[in-house]
Specification:
This protein is mainly α. 74% of the residues lie in helices and 5% in strands. Strands 1-2 form a two-stranded parallel sheet. Helix 5 runs antiparallel to helix 7. It is rod-shaped and about 85 Å long. Keywords: Membrane, Transmembrane, Transmembrane helix.
Length: 205
């Protein structure tokens, strides 16, 4: 007779295994804010299905061995839940380690950008960094110089960090913007960005 308690434990472990494995798909691309489909895709669900099928085969083979007086079905559930439990522990440890490592990197990046922001505020030279690939000139040199002059009037400049998009660095850049925002509003007044952009748009006309 199948043990109901063992069956429930097995089902719970399998569901937890699937949930934790799927969560790993989010942690792989953290701190990005992906949709459900992207998370499911990054978690590679086919791998967990293969593992569950392999564990079922191993448990079925073991259930045919004579081990004390345990019912073959209970033997299957015991082996299957044990294998799934081991994999659950490994994945949970890996996911937790990945998350902690990423969080530490983000905090370190944010601290560096906050420090840089405070130094730039003192110099009245705010620099917004962004990743945008190779720069393709949209204006002639004279117009670009005028645009730079307008931005300089508002106390900012822009720097292209290249084509490599580093999500951790982006988090740091966001913290930089949050840090300098009160200073720029105090310096230029509220709505200064819209005013600056209008001046630049007038150049294009």
């Amino acid at each position: 007779m199948v043990s109901k308690k063992l069956l429930i434990i097995t089902i719970v472990i399998v569901l937890l295994l699937i949930a934790v494995h799927t969560l790993g798909g989010y942690l792989i691309i953290y701190p990005m804010k992906p949709d459900v489909w992207t998370v499911a895709s990054e978690s590679r669900p086919q791998y967990i299905l293969i593992a569950l099928a392999l564990f079922a085969l191993i448990a079925w083979l073991v259930s045919h061995l004579r081990i004390k007086n345990i019912n073959p079905k209970n033997k299957f559930l015991l082996v299957y839940s044990t294998l799934c439990g081991v994999l659950l522990t490994v994945i949970a440890y890996f996911d937790a380690t990945t998350y902690i490592s990423t969080r530490k990197a983000i905090i370190r990046s944010e601290s560096e950008y906050i420090k840089q922001a405070k130094e730039d505020v003192k110099k009245d030279k705010i620099m917004y960094r962004f990743a945008g690939g190779l720069s393709i000139p949209e204006y002639d040199p004279k117009t670009r110089n005028k645009i730079d002059s307008i931005r300089k009037k508002f106390g900012i400049s822009y720097f292209n960090t290249g084509c490599t998009v580093d999500v951790i660095d982006i988090e740091g850049q966001q913290k930089y913007k949050e840090t300098v925002k009160p200073y720029l509003e105090k310096r230029n007044g509220k709505g200064w960005e819209e005013k600056m952009n209008r001046e630049i748009e007038n150049l294009e006309k």
